[in-house]
Amino acid sequence: MSITRQIGKCSLVGAAFFSLVGCTFRPNLIGAHIRNGGDEAKVVEVTLSADDAKTIKDREIYFSIVVVDCKNHENHFPIKPYIDGRPASNFSFSISGSFVTAQGTIPAKFLVGFPNPCVALQGGSYFFGKLDSTPVPLSGR
Q1: Rounded distance, CA 134 to CA 68, Å?
Q2: The domain that contains 67 carries what CATH number?
Q3: Stated pTM of the model
């Protein structure tokens, strides 16, 4: 193989790699709900499409469920997500049906300072860039 051809292949591979690294995946959240998890805790549940969950699983994108103030996104609280009772970071969750629910626990006292809480997913992957969803209102308080 000629040196020109090798350089051309390396350039294409490099361009593909850097185009993926710089991308931001923006899953569309269907909704977010909160329920009691005991006296001191609340459980936050976030629903996303099965297609978005498959992308997260296939690309092994690490993420957190992030509770934010809808009006001031600087005030936030990240939550470790679980899907099917297992850490989402294991990427061993099943995808059946149209939707997947990720959930995590937050201290109840944290929500007192948030008159209008929202929820987003944020994270990233070593090779596939960032994950950053648009915040959606948290219902069921």
Answers
A1: 11
A2: 2.60.40.10
A3: 0.80
Q: How far apart are CA 80 and CA 87, in angstroms?
A: 8
The 3 state secondary structure assigned to the chain is CCHHHHHHHHHHHHHHHHHHHCCEECCCEEEEEEEECCCCEEEEEEEEEHHHHHHHHHHCCEEEEEEEECCCCCCEEEECCEECCEEHHHCCCCCCCCEEEEEEEEEHHHHHHCCCEEEEEEEEECCCEEEECCCEEEECC
Give me the number of domains the chain comprises. 1
Average pLDDT over residues 46-64: 95
Asked whether 78 and 64 are in contact (CB, 8 A), the reply is yes
pLDDT the model gives residue 1: 57
Of residues 136, 123, 110, the one with CA closest to residue 45: 136
Range of 8's domain? Answer: 3-139
Provide the token pair at 102.
């990720």
| Per-residue confidence (pLDDT) for residue 37, from 0 to 100 | 85
Q: What residues form DSSP beta bridges with 5?
A: none
